[in-house]
Amino acid sequence: GENVEQHPSTLSVQEGDSAVIKCTYSDSASNYFPWYKQELGKGPQLIIDIRSNVGEKKDQRIAVTLNKTAKHFSLHITETQPEDSAVYFCAANSGGGADGLTFGKGTHLIIQP
Amino acid sequence: EAGVAQSPRYKIIEKRQSVAFWCNPISGHATLYWYQQILGQGPKLLIQFQNNGVVDDSQLPKDRFSAERLKGVDSTLKIQPAKLEDSAVYLCASSFNNEQFFGPGTRLTVL
Fold it and tell me: For residues A82 and A41, what is the distance between their CA atoms, to the nearest angstrom?
């Protein structure tokens, strides 16, 4: 089955700086890669996603890149703000009809004022 | 648009007891998922439904966990009997065009 590795587990950046979180996946059949933000006591919130026919996608301060050959994808957050502090998860689907997600272990992003 | 609804939000039981969780997906979403999230980890898929049929239950511990989605809308997840290691947050999600939207989860503590 799919295996998703995520790094780093904790990331501390100064407010206004950029943050980058990286993930790798194992199943070449995966074709959908979402990123979720989870705040304490809440369910994961979809913030951006990318499909395998696209190399990069951007939404305001958030961007995601995908390298299918190397099987890795990354989340980039620019001009970080205190409200960006949370746990971020990458995920990959299984491909085909059973498209449940396999998640990474998460990155705790801390924005230092 | 209303999100995914789950209840209860919290549940505390003793080991060997039974517990059930309820989920109401986003209106019109045919696909529904249950995930288990142990503290400090990412969610792990337990079961996926398409309408009222099971698509994938390969990671569901079927000796103690069961789930159903009657009429293809609401779903219930049951644990009987519960073990200490079942302590986790149980998340329900529904999807449209691959995009999965999660509910707030039910935090289960097994003592």
Answer: 18
